[in-house]
Each structure stands twice: as structure tokens, then as C-alpha cells.
Amino acid sequence: MKLNKELEALLNNQINMELAASYQYQAMAAYFDERALEGFSKWMSEQSKEEVEHSNKFYNYVLKRNGKVEFFALDKPKMDFNSIKEVFEATLAHEEAVTASIENIHKLARELGDYGAEVFLNEFAEEQEEEEEQVQKIIDKIVSLDVDNNSATLYLLDKEMGTRE
Ligand SMILES: [Fe+2]
């Protein structure tokens, strides 16, 4: 099936959105590095790498469908935050926006009867549920351990965050 132009545009937008997420998460890693929070920084760097992988999957899919890949300019990421909680709330908001975008592409693929694109997108729908759940759990820990005001629990959570592979 020939790749529909509107669908191609949305897939290209998604390539850009995943790269923007990667850029933003690396900026958050820098925020943590400035505060000597190596575990949080490691977690964000890993998250950043994952987003590049997501972007590459969309990139390869556009090529596979004989489409044209289009790169956009990236906005400057947010570099300053008032708390660790704020960083992860921003992460969750970002992931929710990505989820909405993927759902939107999925909707168009369905309308077009592009079953192949639908199958390709299903993997991401599942991935996004996991991402959101994971980030929500971290926010819950940040709140329940009060890590923004407690250096002992901050130290412990930073260690735990650093175990991410
Ligand atoms: Fe992603």
C-alpha cells in the first residue's frame, strides 16, 4: 500500500517529537549532573537514548514505506527546574503528549485502512503505557519519600535510579 501523504507527514512529525524528547531528557540529565545526582542523571540519559531509538524506528518505517524522511529544527529544551518533582512532572507531560500524538497517527492509519501502519504503531501504544506508568511511579516515590526536602531519601532514590540499564 502506498504511504498516504498525510500519514507520512504525521510519521515525520513523530520522528521529530521523539528526537525533541531525547534532547529534553538529556537537558534534564545535565540538570541532575549539575547537582551531583548521578543516578537521576543516568536514568535520564538512558531515557534520552531510548527516544533516539524510537525516532529511528519511525525513520526506518518511513523509508520502508518508500516515504521521504523530513527533519525539523529542534526547540531549545527547558534547562531549569525548581525541584526534582517538577522534572518528572514535565517528563510525564511530555510522555502524555507523545501518547496523544501516536494515538492520533493510529487513528488516521485506521481511517485509511492502512493495516501495516496500524500494526507498526501498536508496539508504540504499548510502549507509551509502560513509559507513563514508570514515570508516574517515580513521581509517587518522589512525593512519598519527600526527596526534594530530605537528603537521606534523596540519596537512596538517586542510588536506585542509577541502577537503570
Ligand atoms: Fe518515545
Supply the key terms.
mainly alpha, binds fe (ii) ion, Ferritin, 77% helix, 165 residues, single chain
How would you sum up this structure, described in words?
The protein has 165 residues and is mainly alpha-helical. The chain has a single domain, classed as Ferritin, core subunit, four-helix bundle (Ferritin, Up-down Bundle), CATH 1.20.1260.10. It is built from 5 helices and no strands. The termini are far apart. The model has no long low-confidence stretch (mean pLDDT 97). The structure holds fe (ii) ion. The site of fe (ii) ion has 5 residues, from helix 1 and helix 2.
Q: Quick one: CATH superfamily?
A: Ferritin, core subunit, four-helix bundle
Bound heterogens, unique: fe (ii) ion
Using the 3D structure, state the CATH architecture.
Up-down Bundle
Q: CATH fold name, please? A: Ferritin
Looking at how many chains there are and whether they match, the oligomeric state comes to single chain
Number of strands: 0
Average pLDDT metric: 97
Proportion of β residues?
under 5%
Number of helices: 5
Radius of gyration: 17 Å
Share of residues in helices: over 70%
Structural class: mainly alpha
- H/E series: HHHHH
- Counted up, domains total 1
Stretches with pLDDT under 50, minimum 5 residues: none
Largest sheet properties? none
Terminus-to-terminus distance: 38 Å
Shape: elongated
Q: Tell me, what is the CATH class? A: Mainly Alpha
